[in-house]
Amino acid sequence: MSNIFSDMTMRDISASYEGTVILVKSPDDEGFYPARLLEVCDGYAYLKKSNKDVIKLPLWNKRIDFKMSFPELGMINVKDHVCYVSRRAARQWKKGLRLHNLHITTYDDELLERLSPSTRFYSNKLEYDIFNPEYTDFFEAIELVDAGEKIARAVSSDFCISNFAFCSKPLLMYRNNAVGVVKGTSVSISDKLIHVIPSLKRIIPNGYHSSIIVESQRGL
Question: Is residue 118 classed as helix, strand or coil in its secondary structure?
Fold first, then answer.
């Protein structure tokens, strides 16, 4: 068992973890799931799940397991676009995940503003989604973005395919940087940026590595 509360008082739990997203597992669960700790009171934890249900669990019951496992951050698919999530420098970040302690960027803000000027680019559900991110197949991402069905699609925690307001073709993004141009079902990468190719090859299925085209800077 990995109950992070086992040797803590309610006062310490409240000060350290209230408002953070932690992982929870009870006998009726198949595995751990993320939940936001809203409050501790009278030996119980009140937690909000991703579906907004609020549950009450005993803090020190040996059948209940609580743990803090900071998730791998990076690209996250959100609605029809992508967020890149990184950690802000903050004291005591290890005490739990809080959305306001994360730095979040989107691809591409100007295009998003044009299409949905009054819509938030991401919701509080993001703090749950980063624990179990779902990625799009590389070629499906190219097809969806190139056809304009999606603004961007993440294919891994480090890479996404994204449209941009003033670009005629989708771009391959590596973290916060554009590293390639989508040309049909292939991606053209500058010979100055070939250091990203080994990571990209781990995403593209074996036998399709010819879809990565290396061109000179002049060629791009």
Answer: coil
